[in-house]
Design a protein that fits this description.
Length: about 375
């Protein structure tokens, strides 16, 4: 049987990985400044993470959501404390798209409305409502196009109000730092204005923290810089450090009822063990503070790069925008320097999404490689 060929692949086969490094089948070491697409938060194969999942697997890996699972409560308490969102309610699922799908569905249940407002250059996933709210017509099939979504330019607050005023929009969904779109973000005034307009017109405010959450920006969630309280917060990627787990945090005003949302795999024992290990390491190793420090160091070093237009993003969700398309440079970095980086919708932007455990020496190594190539 052949694989359904939907991914253009780089010619590299990872065999094992440790902290910020991935090793190929010949044991060649690659510096991971991509984190498997912002997924690796606490570093590859962290001993505590491996131990916690292994020990859980020895006991029980999975049972359905129809039974008691104390790990879910332990996780909710720990997540609440660390994220400073302890008054929110937690619903588990398995991926970022699924988190957004559930967030949009909940918003529609709660408001009784069905239109969505999303922003230009957004990416929210590849499933039904999530892909419809993604600004990329190439990945929207006719079956998804039935979803009614208005796309507004990031920052266009008048347009947001004009649309919500019509009273048909159940949710505004927003990445506080756009990931796939190219690291754009707005000043605080924009986000607070959107939140206010949402309240006024009974529209829920969904913060898509799938990529920016779990400490990646130096805050637990990227929206926290702006002092707002979203109605729903979606999470995935860094949450499980590679174990497929996602979730939404739901404002206490939104009341649950049996059957409203559901999942077979979401919140299973292994997923909880993986996420608990991530939270424990984030806290014990002070990785959010560390992300801020490494970010400052990275930005300082990057200032001296030739051909650089801007440095975008926050914490360890960063982008280097050059005055030329970066596709060839990215390949050279992988094949000649053995450094993984990411791309985005902006062809001139190199995306940097390393494990939060990255050290100054790794950043120095990357900067040396860039200086050589530029
Ligand atoms: C902001 C954002 N939302 C949602 C998703 C979809 O997540 P998943 O691929 O886990 O479905 C992504 C994936 O890149 C993302 O960056």
């Amino acid at each position: 049987m052949s694989l359904f060929d939907v991914y253009p692949l780089f010619d590299m086969t990872p065999a094992f990985a440790k902290d910020v490094f991935v090793y190929d089948t010949n044991e060649v070491e690659y510096l991971d400044l991509y984190g498997g697409h912002a997924v690796i938060s606490i570093g590859h194969s962290h001993p505590h993470y491996v131990q916690r999942i292994s020990e859980q697997l020895q006991k029980i890996g999975f049972y359905s959501n129809a039974i008691q699972n104390p790990l879910q409560h332990e996780l909710a308490t720990k997540l609440g404390k660390l994220s400073k969102c302890s008054n929110y309610q937690l619903f588990f699922c398995n991926s970022g798209a699924e988190a957004n799908e559930n967030a949009l569905k909940l918003a529609s249940f709660y408001t009784g409305k069905k239109k969505v407002l999303a922003f230009k250059n957004s990416f929210h996933g590849r499933t039904s409502a999530a892909v419809a709210a993604t600004d990329n017509p190439n990945i929207i099939a006719p079956i998804n196009a039935q979803q009614e979504v208005d796309f507004v330019a990031l920052g266009d607050i008048e347009k947001v109000e004009d649309i919500l005023k019509e009273g048909k929009t159940c949710a505004v969904i927003i990445e506080h730092i756009q990931g796939v779109g190219g690291l754009d973000e707005m000043p605080t005034a924009f986000y607070t204005a959107v939140a206010k307009i949402c309240k006024k017109y009974n529209t829920l405010f969904i913060a898509d923290e799938v990529q920016s959450g779990f400490g990646r920006t130096g805050d637990f969630f990227a929206f926290q810089k702006h002092g707002i309280m979203p109605d729903i917060i979606s999470m995935a990627k860094g949450m499980g450090n590679g174990f497929p787990v996602g979730g939404i945090l739901i404002h206490p005003d939104l009341k649950p009822s049996y059957g409203m949302l559901g999942t077979t795999f979401g919140g299973n024992h292994l997923a909880c063990a993986a996420t608990l290990a991530v939270l424990e390491i984030l806290q014990k190793e002070g990785l959010m503070q560390h992300a801020c420090e490494m970010s400052a160091y990275f930005v300082e070093k990057a200032q001296t790069l030739p051909k650089l237009k801007t440095i975008k993003g926050r914490g360890l969700m960063l982008g280097l925008e050059f005055d030329f398309p970066i596709a060839a440079l990215r390949k050279t970095l992988i094949y000649q320097h053995h450094i993984f980086t990411g791309s985005s919708k902006n062809p001139n932007l190199l995306r940097i999404l390393p494990p939060l455990t990255i050290q100054k020496k790794h950043i120095d190594h990357f900067m040396d490689a860039l200086h050589q190539e530029l």
